[in-house]
Amino acid sequence: MSRSTSKSAYLSCGIISLVWLAFLGKVYAQQGFHDSVESRSLHVANTIEQINQGKFDKFEIHGLSRFDDEKKEVLKQWVKTGVNATRNALGVYPSRLIFHLVPKKSNQPVPWAYTRRDNPQRIYLHVDSRFPLQKFIDDWTIYHEISHLAIPYLGEKYAWLAEGFASFMQYQVMDKAGILDGTPEQHYRKKIAPHLKWFKSDLPPAAIARRLMNQKQYPAAYWGSAYFFILADNALSSQHNTSLARLISQYQLCCHARHGDVNQLMNDLDTLLGGSVMTKLLSEFEHQPAREIYPIEFE
Ligand SMILES: [Zn+2]
Fold first, then answer.
1. Cα 167 to averaged position of ligand 1 atoms, centre (Å)
2. What's the whole-model pTM score?
3. For the chain, N or C: smaller number of CB within 10 Å?
4. Ligand 1 centre from 148 Cα, in Å?
């Protein structure tokens, strides 16, 4: 087990009470929370206490014994870089981050990865350790997988949204860490453009994305759904002078749950925000024709 520096956890503690006070005010002002204010207050107090005791910000790597000593160091360094970069963008994770490394010969450093949302949650990374450290760091996979854990498991019906979230966030995390070649916008356009054709439809985007998932058209489903978070981030920036990553880092401190209902997630985010960006956008994606939401092509 390895423990990353406690500096950011310490800095985070200073803002926790401010965030929480602002949050509590909104809770009182807005109805619709499933839990009582007392139970949420207790939960946050508990989380702060545990952060102060150094219980979070930890990560574990399993499976290292299957690699030689030199490769072990490269892989440890890579996972540490991934954890620090993701935490830097999305805040302190209120749960342990557990990684399982599996050797796999391939033409890329991380040919396959997935996240299991059981208790405890685990990230599985299949790696070809013949690649040098920089190739691992430049690969988007680890940032994508850790991003998944910043929001609750939303169930099969919203797998498209979860993948859109992680796909959007991987480039936000890499950009903030100075790892990304080019801007996130350039990457989004390049990834989404080939799939815009699916969204020239009178069906709502949520129905299209679900169908694409069922048909195993994963790049189309993932990147089509990432557009939800591009719109969310744009609205948060123009209307509330914040960003989705910043909102998520506040959410992780106050309200994160391992399993959650999509409506509760969007409600919680809007409550933190003091607005209705996320609930409104989800409603549009569920009910409005996709052709009214997506561009025909990017300029
Ligand atoms: Zn994913």
1. 7
2. 0.84
3. C
4. 7
